[in-house]
Amino acid sequence: MHIANFTKIQNTMAEPRHKQEQNRLLGHVTQFKRQKGLLTLAIETSCDDTCVALLQSYESTERTEKPELVARLLFNKKITSDQRQFGGVHPAVAVEWHQRHLATLVEEAIRSLPEGNTSASQKTKLPYRTPDLIAVTRGPGMPTSLATGMEVAKGLALAWGIPIVGVHHMQAHALTPQLVEALDRSAAFSVASSPWEARQRVDAEVKAASGQQEEAQHPNLDYPYLNLLVSGGHTQLVYSASLTSHLIQCTTDNIALGDMLDKAARKILPPSMLNSGQNVMYAAALERFAFPRFPIGADEREYNFKYTPPATRAAEIEQHNSPYGWHLSPPLYASRKMEYNFTGLGSQAQRIADSLDSFSSYEKPTEQVLSLEDSPESGSDLAPSPDSSTTILSPALKEEDQIEQRRYLARATMQLAFEHLASRIVMVLQQQAKTSGEQQKVKTLVVSGGVASNQFLRHVLRRVLEVRGFGHIRIMAPPVNLCTDNAAMIAWTGSEMWRAGWVSKLDMLPIKKWSMSSTGEQGGILGTEEKPFYVRR
Question: What are the boundaries of the region Disordered (predicted)?
Fold first, then answer.
């Protein structure tokens, strides 16, 4: 299976081998300078991250007859509130954080605007080019946090006399791989036009041109495709037919995957690791704890997780027996219902973690202990010590042995959760293979949202699809910095909605819960005739 992982937007503007190629590149740069494009300022405040971005995008026929979108970020910054004392997100603290930092970030973004040489900037008598569009997250999310960003966005739209687009947060996550493709198209030719962009170019000017373009390795993302949206607030498998047409195939009505992993991590992680964290992203810390040897910034294909995927549905729903006397039951192991449910798995993991502190439940671990031949391979991140199969849970448990068992629990919890995600993806693909026409069949699975940054998740999805007969499905996931909440994805989605002819009214209000499904009561992205979320521009 080919995975377009987009781990880094690389700048290939190295020394060209031929003068002809150099002239072509310089010509493209000149074209980019002449092309003003659509300039979008975006704000994202749906939760506890205060985010602002400035995106320039335009259509180009430089490389293909069919116009393709090219984009570059002039500014993209995020400040996350410190919620460690609460062990999670406190709405009042998040709002105060937005109020304190949003204006400052907007001010920084304004300093990154291009110089004013347009009729609009001459009319406003401003030294910079005013944006063409304001994009802001409208929902779903915490209403008070959303309102803070929306009020600032409305003020800017009024002051500059430009349209505003209220963006669906999960739609923006789903479209992020398209943003990455557009950024990638301009990476080889862009010229820094702002202090922020100039600083980012330092990290990008590293790789020489290899003679093959990046798009040859990562073909364009075309509709339809499947979206796996996984975050702290949402877990959804969505069939995306177009920009505004989406159908939810599978979702959760209780706890989201990211929330379950956060709660489990607070029990599983050693106190020293919990207390040393700089934020409340406990799920991300759980991955680092489970795989301490995974190199920072590496791709999942570069690391041996020693993971064997379930080749059948029967294997997928087997109880997970640990070599330490406890077991975990897979979510919905007795049902093929198209839903996600992580409540039971999370509760099991937390109870086991609690027992590791008290030792009261496992003083005689004999019944379900596996042999050393069935335990993790020696030398792996989670392999128990040679004599641990019978004595690991004694009252005299050493600290290093307890850490070893917690590490195993972290991996087992993530493995069953991720296989549960993969199981419903396989079911959808199997059904489509039987009933859908060729044009309706998906060729790509997009994984987005905060949990999409988990490399073990990407590995499990890839391996499961391979052994279940869907190795031809391409998996696309954004770089880590674009998996979590950010304003760049809001800018891109707002720009796409504007190009499609949609804008928002200034009297729009935050939407706490906003389903993407076009067949739902809310009418999906666009809303209903009685209660539309957008109007034609």
Answer: 366-392
